[in-house]
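Thread: "does anyone have the structure for this chain?"

Original post by V.I.:
We have the sequence but no experimental structure in hand. Need at least a predicted one for the grant figures.
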Amino acid sequence: MGFGFNLFFIFILLPLTGILLLFWLFSRKIIIGKMLGIVWGGVLSLILFLGIVRWLNSKIILKKDDYYGEYIVNRNYFKGKQTDWQYNHFRFEITDKDSIFFYETEGEKILKIHQGTIHTVKPYNSARLVIYMENPIHHILASNPTTYRASWDFYLVFRSPKFYNVFFKKGKWQPIIEESIGRYE
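Reply from O.Q.:
Generated one for you, tokens below.
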């Protein structure tokens, strides 16, 4: 816990517990024992609750093999024609042989494959992705991605001189289904 909890524990909880224990030992009243149980039950419940909340809100710690898989453009961040176009034209795969294959596509059809290798560095707790591409380098892969971690997953953001930021998440590419309900054409 933190400094405030330590102060509470030393200056409030321990003296209160000692006083209630002394009263309980001398008076043998059940109500004082119940009060003692309620105080400690509340403190332990609060500690357990805060521990669970901290665990649920903590960011995932990535290892190298967490990066292996297929990636698609994340259409949840920005909606519209530009994102849909990027989704249908770019995706990549990182294999367990530390290879990266960046695909330029037209929907399902792969037009061009850019190959490279990956490794990770661990400046802190979580591994960060480093990409080495063979020439010519595609503009999306001109620099290493920034990894954004959440509680249960992560996504990669590549800085592109043409598109600014391109967001990728793990997933399999599927055709975009146009919603034609309510549209007049």
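V.I.: this helps a lot. The radius of gyration is 27 Å.
O.Q.: and Residues 180-185 have pLDDT under 50 and may be disordered.
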